[in-house]
Amino acid sequence: MDDFIAARSQMALSLGFHIIFSCIGMVMPFFMAVSHYKWLKTDDEVYKNLTKAWSKGVAIFFATGAVSGTMLSFELGLLWPKFMDHAGPIFGMPFSLEGTAFFIEAIALGFFLYGWNKLNKWFHWFTGMVVGVSGLASGILVVAANAWMNSPAGFDFVNGQYLNIDPIQAMFNKAWFSQALHMCLAAFTATGFAVAGVHALMILRNRNAGFHLKAFKIAAIFACIGALLQPLSGDISAKDVAKRQPAKLAAMEALYKTEKPAPLLIGGIVNEKDKTVKGAIKIPGALSFLAHGDFKAEVKGLDQIPENEHPPVAITHYAFQIMVGIGTLLLLVALTYFFILFKKKPLTEKRWLLKLFVFAIPLGYLALEAGWVVTEVGRQPWIIYGVMRTKDAVTPMPGIAYSFYIFSAIYVSLSVIVTFLLYRQIKMVPLLYNKTGANNN
Amino acid sequence: MKEVVITFLCMAILLYFLLGGADFGAGIIELFTSTKNRSKTRKTMYQAIGPVWEANHMWLIIAIVILFVGFPHIYTTMSVYLHIPLAIMLIGIIARGTAFVFRHYDAVKDDMQWLYNRIFRYSSFVTALFLGIIAGSLISGHIDTQATDFYTAYISGWLNWFSIAVGFFTVALCGFLAAIYLIGETNEYHDKRRFIKKAEFMNIAAVVFGAMVFIAAQRDKIPLIDWVFKSTVGLSAIVLASLSLILLWYLLIKGKTKILRVLAGFQVTMILLAISYAHFPNFIRLKSGNAISLLETIGPEKTIYSLGLALLLGSILILPFLGYLFYKFQKKEE
Predict the structure, then answer these.
(1) φ and ψ at B97, to 5 degrees?
(2) What ipTM score was computed for the predicted complex, to two decimals?
(3) Secondary structure E strands in chain B
(4) Which chain B residue lies closest to A60 (C-alpha atoms)?
(5) Average pLDDT across chain B, whole number
(6) Cross-chain residue pair A92–B70, CB shorter than 8 Å
(7) A134-149: per-residue pLDDT in tens?
(8) Per-residue pLDDT at A439 exceeds 60
(9) What is the CA radius of gyration of chain A?
(10) What is the pTM of this model?
(11) Any residues with CB less than 8 A from the CB of B242 and at least 6 apart, and which?
């Protein structure tokens, strides 16, 4: 394996792994806070047990997310030292704030997990909220740093030199808001559907249905609101990308030729050699509308971009299709759910709806990963868009392939163990949290 | 702001050595505990470090972020030439961090515990060893940025007698810190005795490996003796460390347990000071005889200003909250 490809694969794998764990660590505290609040207000033991059961999951995910995040903060240098040499001082601001947010999150988690019966109950609830809020802030800050790579700001690039560095301006680059909004909604949607789905499965199997129904309802409402808002945020993102990164937008839609008006392609097989797309459904003018808000607008194709600045079209296009496809599907699930809620029909009788949620367990995360593939692969060949190429940033050390193999093995085994632990946690629910509310912490 | 940023960097590294180190030490102590006492050690340890566990590791993140934002050249030089030991340390951090949580949160306590325990103990040892190796390598003067072959560039920078001796010295110090910390976390007589034994053992190990560090330094032509004994600061730090060690053992016999950890922390701080003061602000000593200095490679002014501000604001939020966490969950003396 080529060292450059190995470095990119290792980075992609590490990020892909970390993203799932950090999303869960970022979103679950809010589910817990709702359940915790309901317990404090209603004194219903089931909510207390639910909060505790969830908090164990969060502890597992947080620890895994924390170590994979530590890994990433080193990996930026281990794999891309020439990038960090220049980028560090420019886009480091969100990272230094993120360090604070992450630290607060870790402290608050210590209070939350170990604070049962030891702290004032509202202070205890508050520490749980702090975990969520600081986790969310961490997420937004890290995405702001990534946004800088897509939309470099806060410096002047003159003759290969990075001058007049302004880290604040770099942090508030043009892409930070649209990316952070899209990511936060994605985190809530994906985690919400995954959690709701798992509990739906338990209801279908008739195991502690009362416990799982309460859990399902909390997770489902977050998931469905997220799925409902996500298309709006997607629209903001699309218009933003069209303006700033026409090459990425063209790759997302496999638009090889500039067109006016440009059609939206759904599906299709991309042939990168012939620069053609076969078998796609074309919606005339729709891409023009999505990109510029006007059905007749011109959309820049890859023909207007130098060949050596083209991102890999097929991967970007397929990933984009997966993301949008799943997003649409989840939107439909959300609308159905709201309709059933509105009709006030008991959920346990709607087994098909619960089955739909079970089916959706992995979908949100699939869409989320696909979205990151779009933004990262779609930025190539640049590591700092228009400024530094990814291949110029890679470490001079040979043999990165071995590093990639080792870390792949580690991430795969961690995923297996975490899944196994979660399976055991869920299996033990009837024993740990029975109707009398007794449990062994 | 330069001073603020450098102070925070030094403080984060020191706190990571002390708190993270005590945490590695807990795994190392478990490694050297006989099978019949292990589950008890584990329990005391969990009660002691469970709540503060994640927070202890945040200091590494803070240190690394300060390095890559404020001193990118130092960060990237380390990343390139110490790639291998850093990667091994990271594998250790991942393995022990996850094993520690998994073994506590596995809903079924069965044979898997055996696996988690193994991973936790050995990876604690490896992480501390490589943390020490990396620290030793930075001042060993073996890092060769002009190397043309793989071995000189990526191996000999850290695989040398001095770095390895510092690695083992670090392992012993971590074990010592953990044992002293754990003495104060148990009220039971037998447990206390056991941790005192462990502290003695680790103390002796630290002295032996400390001597090895000096021998290895002589062998690798590193002027360690000059740094430590020919500077007033170095010498006084060593004298203070020795005095505090005597005081520590005296108080231990007297049965005072809480003050011990302050003394142990002070001691390790003095050792670090003695080793690093003489070549401060140089951070990496190179084979060419040059050094990479904190002051000379510091990032642009605006970056340092906002970094310093972020650190100051962050510490206003973090420190009281963290202090309360430590206070709230400490073992009350009966």
Answers:
(1) -60, -45
(2) 0.87
(3) 282-285, 291-293
(4) B101
(5) 86
(6) yes
(7) 999 999 999 999 999 9
(8) no
(9) 23
(10) 0.89
(11) none
